[in-house]
Amino acid sequence: MDLNQTTDTVYQRWWKSWLSRRLPPQNRVTLAHKSIFILPTGFGLIWLLLVVLLFLFGTNYQNNLVIALSLLLLSLFNTCIIYSYRNLAGMTLEAKTGPHVYAGQTVLYPVYLSANQVQHQVTLSYGDNETQTVANVTDKAVQTLVPFASQRRGWTHPGRLKVESRYPLGLCRAWSNVDLDNAQIVFATPIASVTQLHQHLQDGTTEQPLRGRSTQGVEEFKGLKPYVFGESLHQIAWKQLAQGRGMLTKEFEQPLSAPTWLTFNDKHPDLELQLSELTWSVDQLSEQEQAFGLVLPNQTYMPATGQHHRLASLKAIATIDHISTKGNLG
User: Is there a single domain that holds both residue 268 and residue 314?
Assistant: First the structure.
């Protein structure tokens, strides 16, 4: 048993090494004779066996009609080989960035397909994941989302994309294994934890209740905005109205308090749990439009808001590796 597993491992390594040399990773790939492989399907093998039996039968009984039938079936098989190759040759595949997901969810990798001539019934899949079928590929690029189940956070590479076709009669299987170089960051699975939502003052020594979001008030002038029917007349900018600038309303806000800081604890007993809690905290604060900063090993993100800050924080959390934190976790 162990010997077979070792043999399989050696074979798989050799196969991957050979593919890497023959089909190096590229974000955009056009299939050609060097990247297309063809073998008979199970139905095709039965077809060839039938051809051999008919030929032997016709030869043994000197029946020219049976011999002619066997040759006709063989020529049809050869024709299928040519059409199977043509159904993939010249097809261009291009990878794009997919939507962000969390560990345990399915990543949908966008792949665009186009071809100079119409190609039919092309299937795409990553390993043992669900297969996607494209009925027709034309010169106009068509997008398909190829699923890949992600179980871990961090950089996730789906591996080689299997592009396959059994057109036209299912006698031959033409396929290619291309690496579209489309690794993507998968965020840590969010786990709710209020204890992560703590805040330090600017000196970093005193904890305060959760704050950091601007609220409407009358303490500090923020600016002018178009008047909305129903707003208090006391807020109207009469001076600007007299200048002919239209109905404007004065907008005020309370000064921003100290922002929230999310801090990586190098003494936490469970690294993955802590990263999941940090992920949840980032999502919660972003949803509340509350400014927050993030302190991680070897990098710090200053307090900010917005989608860009959220994605940068989640990516940083997801890509913390075990090696860089192992020494700190002691």
Answer: yes
The answer to whether the CB of 191 falls within 8 A of the CB of 277 is yes
What is the rounded CA–CA span in Å between residue 300 and residue 321?
A: 16
Q: Are residues 66 and 133 in the same domain?
A: yes
What local confidence, expressed as pLDDT, does residue 264 receive?
Answer: 86
CA 302 to CA 261: how far, in whole Å?
9
Predicted local distance difference test score (pLDDT) of residue 213: 43
Helix (H, G, I), strand (E, B) or coil at 33: coil
What's the Rg (C-alpha) of the chain?
Answer: 31
Q: Tell me, yes or no, whether 225 and 207 share the same domain.
A: no
Note down the domain range covering 107: 27-186
Q: How far apart are CA 233 and CA 241, in angstroms?
A: 12
Q: Residue 122: helix, strand or coil by DSSP?
A: strand
Has residue 169 been placed in a domain?
yes
The stretch 117-139 carries a mean pLDDT of 92
- 174-194 exposure pattern, b = at least 16 Cβ within 10 A, e = fewer: bbbbbbbebebbbbbbbbebe
Both 63 and 160 in one domain: the answer is: yes
Say yes or no: 248 and 319 in one domain.
Answer: no
Q: pLDDT per residue over 172-208, tens digit each?
A: 999 999 999 888 999 999 988 766 565 443 434 444 4
18 within domain boundaries = no
Residue type present at position 292: F
Rounded to two decimals, the pTM is: 0.70
Averaged pLDDT, 74-103: 93
Distance of CA 38 to CAs 15, 57, 219, 279, Å? Answer: 16, 29, 75, 46
In a domain? residue 19 = no
